[in-house]
Amino acid sequence: MQSIKRGFKFILLLLFFFPLVAMAKNQVVNYEPKEVKLTGVIKNLQFPGPPNYESIEKGDADETGPYLVLDNPIDVMPESKSKKYEEDTPEKNVKLIQLVVENKQDWKKVREGNQVEVSGTLFHSHTGHHHARVLLTLKKISVISRQKTVSKDKDLDITSEDKEFINRK
């Protein structure tokens, strides 16, 4: 009888802790050419651009653009070992993604505060114009909900790894 009680307690413990362990893991997605589907909130962020990428106030160009703050962080891994994708280094705990919007029609949905589901292909940052570790070439965007007001807080809800990348630039 004691062993049955111990077994039952063990099963209850497993049932309690298994969801916590499962929730702690980030979703793993791949860089291009594989297409991904992600959800988050659109945030317009401003960064200094050329010539020095240091300060808009001191004469650098304003590089304001759309970013997706993911609902949950992801880990991004290379899909292929081909030379075309060699700059796609693995990235862990990514919550901020810079959006590359190529279709003019999509700009209607890329609005600050919109909760969206996007699909597209990911690639790693590789120029001074890239202000997030990972970028997404937008293929499709669907608005889940619209927010009338958006917090103008400087403090983004992003991971420490994302903040470190931004501050390094």
Architecture overview:
There is one protein chain. The protein has 169 residues and is of the alpha/beta class. The chain has one domain (27-168): OB fold (Dihydrolipoamide Acetyltransferase, E2P) (Beta Barrel), CATH 2.40.50. It has helices spanning 2-24, 160-168, and strands spanning 27-30, 35-48, 62-77, 91-100, 115-124, 134-145. The chain has a 5-stranded mixed β-barrel with strand order 2-3-4-6-5. The relative contact order is 0.19. The mean pLDDT is 83.
Produce a short descriptive summary.
The protein has 169 residues and is an alpha/beta fold. Helix content is 19%, strand content 39%.
Query: What's the gyration radius in Å?
Result: 20 Å
Quaternary class: single chain
CATH architecture annotation name? Beta Barrel
Number of strands: 6
Helix content: 10-25%
| Major sheet description | 5 strands, mixed, barrel
Mean pLDDT: 83
SSE sequence, one letter per element = HEEEEEEH
Residue fraction in strands: 35-45%
Shape type = globular
Q: How many angstroms separate the termini?
A: 64 Å
What order do the strands of the largest sheet run in, or round the barrel if closed?
2-3-4-6-5
Secondary-structure-derived class: alpha/beta
Number of helices: 2
Number of domains: 1
According to CATH, the fold-level topology is OB fold (Dihydrolipoamide Acetyltransferase, E2P)
